[in-house]
Amino acid sequence: MIVVSNRVTVPDERVETFEERLRTGHGIEDRPGFRGMTVLSPVDAGGHITTTFWESREDYEGWRESTAFESAHQETSAERAFKNKNKVEIHEVIVDQTTTKSPVPVSEE
User: Fold this and answer.
1) 45 Cα distance to chain centroid
2) Which of 29, 53, 59, 85 is 20 to 30 A (C-alpha) from 66?
3) Residue 78 pLDDT more than 70?
4) How far, CA to CA in Å, does 83 sit from each of 20, 78, 87, 105?
């Protein structure tokens, strides 16, 4: 399994729009190998972090090359509003000590 993280710094006036866009899956939930997504809002940090979980790097690359990905990212206004260039990292999971229940309650704002 791999985890792909994307750190973005969004201006305060764009945060609500940015977060709302991420609440809509845009087809990612139907992709082969997709296992989940979390979006972290900064408390004492410099920017939002999205993490997606994939069975393999090939599954992630398939998403990146899909028309669904292109469609999800066609609205460039949000990306142009980032304060800094986003930073994408890909990691392989080597230890997973999760439970069947989410360890973090999700805010339903």
Assistant:
1) 16
2) 85
3) no
4) 18, 10, 12, 28
Pairing of strands 48-54, 34-40: antiparallel
From CA 24, how far away is CA 90, in angstroms rounded? 22
Q: Model pTM? A: 0.76
Confidence of residue 107 (pLDDT cuts 50, 70, 90): low
Choices 1.10.645.10, 3.30.70.100, 3.40.190.10, 3.40.50.2300: CATH for 2-92: 3.30.70.100
Contacts 24+ apart (CB under 8 A), 70-73: 71/26, 71/27, 72/26, 72/27, 72/28
- Tell me the pLDDT band of 13, cut-offs 50, 70 and 90: confident
